Fold each of these.
Amino acid sequence: MFNIAVLSSGHSRGSNLRAIAEYFRVNNLPVKIAFVIRTVADAPITEVCDEYNLTCHHLSIRDKDKFEAKVKYLTEYHQVHLIALAGFLKCLSSDFIDTVNVPVLNIHPALLPRFGGKGMYGIAVHRAVLAAGDIVSGPSVHIVNSAYDEGEIIAQEKVDVSACHTAEEIASLVLMAEHRLYGRAIWAYLKKLYS
Ligand code: GRF
């Protein structure tokens, strides 16, 4: 059995968490979501946790050192094999990445290295894709290092956005691809790393 942890921040919707949990359930995979972190008490992701009976801890991120120390403690306590960021918009410190001892993955809603980096989150990403006139976009799953969106890319899915006229249309197509990609990428990475 593999244990994973999912970190979100702010008012995270939790749609990727739902897709991941559903992927593991439908495919009967030996992956347990040991705990979920939210940084805002009433974030919508709480409802997804209730639905899937997942432990969801509320941790303030105002003091980042304290936040990271608590995540590290929980990761060790639950013998977590991998941390997946889903809607986690903060930068983790290099000290955390270096000492947590498990890989940290993130999903980004664009084909990195395009449209990554500071400020590139949410609808801003899709506006930039539209402004650039790109006809293909899609999510990337990458290993997290302490620089925004710059870690090794381990999975991507290309999405034809040529018929989209607004950033919102692109966002909705890319989000559907995120839901197809993330659980699969996490499972493939766990297998590669630990078997
Ligand atoms: C997703 O678009 C993901 O790519 C980005 O944050 C968003 C989270 O959405 N990192 P949700 O909370 O999983 O619905």
Amino acid sequence: MSDLINLYQELIMDHGRSPRFHFKPDFFSHEEEGFNPFCGDKVHLYAQVHDDIVEKISFQGCGCAISMASTSLMLESSQKKSLDDLKLLFKKFHDFMMGDITTEDKQLLGKLEIFQGVKNYPTRVKCATLPWHTLEALLRKIDIKE
Ligand code: ZN
């Protein structure tokens, strides 16, 4: 188990130091900002949505390694996904961070399961869920406009 925890930590540190999809695109259809006052993490998401598909999504922001890693890994899992898929992924990740989910649901989360260790630190859970709450707010905006 400790090897697995080390692997998790390495992945979080890697994505925390050099988050993927960390740029403001020239074109985007929707955006949303999130802020975690407990830690000072900031995330600004930019999405290009066409029909019911999030074609591209990236971010600008700064914060602790956990918030940056969580944003980076969330965005890796969010490219070219339907709105419904993203809503489901949000729900599963949220449930996972707040309690337990089935093995089947964990398979849906894939790499996102590395945030398992963060669950032991309630203040850091807010860092890990910040990008997800921001994504959920963005998805709600898309729903309203359609
Ligand atoms: Zn943080």
